[in-house]
DNA sequence: GCCAACATGTAACTAGTTACATGATTAC
DNA sequence: GTAATCATGTAACTAGTTACATGTTGGC
């Protein structure tokens, strides 16, 4: 998956691993993140496959390995984009695993954990709301639909966090009534 | 992560890999799934670490390798449960990656893909709603809080799918107004 | 006889995480 | 000088996926 993200981003503009990491952190990061180590190794693998080519640029003492997409890379990316998803993506949520098994825990500990998660989620929701995608990424926009769709992914993030907060509030409220059982 | 799920389930009741796969599919499956191959290999690794012990049971021609938790397994599991999460779990959603990069696609293709996803999500939402956790898993319940929390994870699934459908409907509606641009 | 369900595994691979490791430049 | 940012990588490991592989029992 990361491979297609890198391909897609390089397709907008050639970039170095470092830059790609930053772009991911500020754009696809909340629905698909990656560590720099994975980005660098994946780029190398992609070059081996002929999907991208790199050139080592030197300005002053700093070195940057800049990756550009090849024709093969572009056609692979387009083939991926044109073959629609026919299944539901799998959801993995560690907190739910913890909640599922928390029946034997001290209810106050569970409440404290959920309240901390609530605070983290609330902060993230505010970040997403504050961030209007246009100003950050509109510069890359090749067409109007791009902006619409980037906005849509950000809206998803906002809805997701709002739903999560909502759920946390409900669970917290329900546990509070059970406190002295 | 899977290790703790297996430990937690075996802690309720000794079970074979096959049974654990089935339990996961019907309980934690929508927030943490696993293939049978991973379950079998993880159980073996857990046995090497002394967290579980297996015994090979034979009834008729069928063989079942039944795993039970050890004292070390129980204390590792409890230590994990008692150390609260202090970060937000990472969300990975392939469809959002696809949407993010779909600006160059034929809008009708994007709409068709989103509508298919809508149908899949709607079906899943109905499954979750129909499934009342009590009837399926209450048998394992060691206390009242367990039932409350299992119900809470199911409620999360329902809320999540409802939010997702809502978002899909919004994006679809927005794209439909762009159709002949 | 055949198919579904029971039951368990290995092999090969891709993906992802965590830690280690290095070195330059710029602003204070 | 020292901390932050720029910039790139490797190593060791854990996790997860896909495909291959095998054999039984019970119902139709």
Question: What are its keywords?
Answer:
homodimer, 181 residues, mainly alpha, three-stranded antiparallel beta sheet, 3 strands, 64% helix, 10% strand, DNA-binding
3D shape of chain A: elongated
Largest interface: A-B, 68 and 69 residues
> What's the end-to-end separation of chain A, in Å?
47 Å
Total helices of chain A: the number is: 8
Radius of gyration of chain A: 21 Å
- Uncertain spans of chain A, ≥5 residues at pLDDT below 50? none
Largest sheet of chain A: 3 strands, antiparallel
Strand content bin of chain A: 5-15%
Largest sheet strand order of chain A: 1-3-2
Summarize the model shown:
The first copy, chain A, has 181 residues and is mainly alpha-helical.
Describe this structure in words.
The structure is a homodimer of 181-residue chains. With 181 residues, chain A is mainly α. Helices cover 64% and strands 10% of the residues of chain A. Chain A has 8 helices and 3 strands. Chain A has helices at residues 2-12, 17-26, 36-48, 71-82, 94-100, 107-130, 133-137, 144-177; strands at residues 15-16, 52-59, 62-69. Chain A has a 3-stranded antiparallel sheet. In chain A, a hairpin with a 2-residue loop joins strand 2 and strand 3. The longest helix of chain A is centred in the last third of the chain and has 34 residues, at 144-177. The mean pLDDT of chain A is 91. The interface between A and B is large, with 68 and 69 residues. Chain A binds a DNA duplex (28 and 28 nucleotides) through residues 1-2, 16-18, 34-38, 40-42, 44-45, 60-65.
């Amino acid at each position: 998956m990361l491979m297609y993200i890198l391909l897609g981003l390089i397709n907008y503009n050639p970039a170095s691993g470092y830059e790609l990491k930053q772009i991911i952190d500020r754009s696809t990061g909340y629905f698909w993140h990656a560590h720099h180590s994975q980005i660098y190794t994946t780029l190398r693998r992609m070059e081996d496959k002929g999907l991208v080519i790199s050139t080592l640029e030197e300005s002053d003492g700093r070195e940057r390995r800049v990756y550009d997409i090849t024709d093969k890379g572009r056609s692979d990316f387009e083939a991926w984009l044109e073959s629609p998803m026919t299944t539901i993506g799998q959801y993995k949520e560690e907190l739910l695993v913890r909640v599922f098994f928390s029946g034997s825990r001290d209810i106050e500990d569970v409440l404290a954990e959920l309240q901390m998660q609530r605070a983290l989620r609330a902060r993230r929701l505010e970040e997403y709301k504050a961030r209007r995608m246009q100003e950050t990424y509109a510069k890359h926009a090749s067409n109007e639909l791009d902006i619409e769709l980037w906005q849509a992914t950000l809206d998803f993030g906002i809805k997701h966090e709002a739903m999560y907060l909502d759920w946390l509030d409900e669970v917290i409220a329900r546990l509070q009534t059970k406190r002295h059982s």
